[in-house]
Design a protein that fits this description.
single chain, about 180 residues, alpha+beta, Topoisomerase I, Chain A, domain 4, Gyrase A, domain 2, 2 domains, four-stranded antiparallel beta sheet, two-stranded antiparallel ribbon, 4 helices, about 15% strand
Length: about 180
């Protein structure tokens, strides 16, 4: 019973870390990636659709993204969606494709990216702590229902705390590594 709770807890905590790392992809670092456009959506025949579903997106070099829509009538929709999303570059429409030229990041922009990253890390830590609380509640319920003893309950909660500490440490290490990567000019 307790092993099942430990396994579920670890799976949820690992999911929190994976979610945080997906969020990191939307941050701007020194080299531009196409993931800065992941949250940009256009109205494609009445449905909000991500840009990668209506065209190809390529990072042609460290500071340029090229978008080739499959339907040329979408150029203006994509252009306005990118402008509204404020991704850090103005779209340049040449009639067949859209190019985004991102300027080199300033020190202030890098610090802002680190600040946003730390906020994402804090959200992941909150999620891990919520997973700990949920697991401890399950253990306490087992104790209350007399399915485990008080000693087993205490040992189970200690094990959950060790799992939590491991994931919090992991998040801190990921944040530290990413901060060095972002601040490196």
């Amino acid at each position: 019973m307790l092993n099942e709770i430990y396994t579920q807890c670890e799976a949820k905590m690992q999911g929190s870390i994976e979610h945080m790392q997906r969020d990191f992809k939307t941050l701007r670092t020194g080299k531009i990636t196409t993931s800065v456009l992941d949250n940009v959506r256009i109205d494609y025949y009445g449905t909000l659709t991500s840009i990668d579903q209506v065209g190809s997106i390529i990072a042609s070099d460290a500071t340029t993204i090229v978008i080739n829509p499959w339907e040329k009538n979408l150029l203006s929709l994509i252009e306005s969606a990118i402008s509204k999303a404020n991704v850090g570059a103005n779209p340049n429409n040449d009639g067949t494709q859209i190019k985004l030229f991102f300027p080199a990041m300033t020190v202030e922009q890098r610090k802002e990216s680190v600040k946003q990253m730390k906020g994402m890390g804090e959200n992941a830590k909150v999620s891990v702590r919520n997973d700990r609380r949920d697991s401890n509640d399950k253990i306490k319920k087992l104790e209350k229902d007399k399915e485990i003893t008080t000693d087993e309950s205490k040992a189970g909660q200690d094990a959950i705390q060790k799992i939590t500490d491991k994931y919090i440490t992991n998040i801190d290490q990921i944040l530290k590594d990413r901060e060095v990567e972002i601040l490196k000019v």
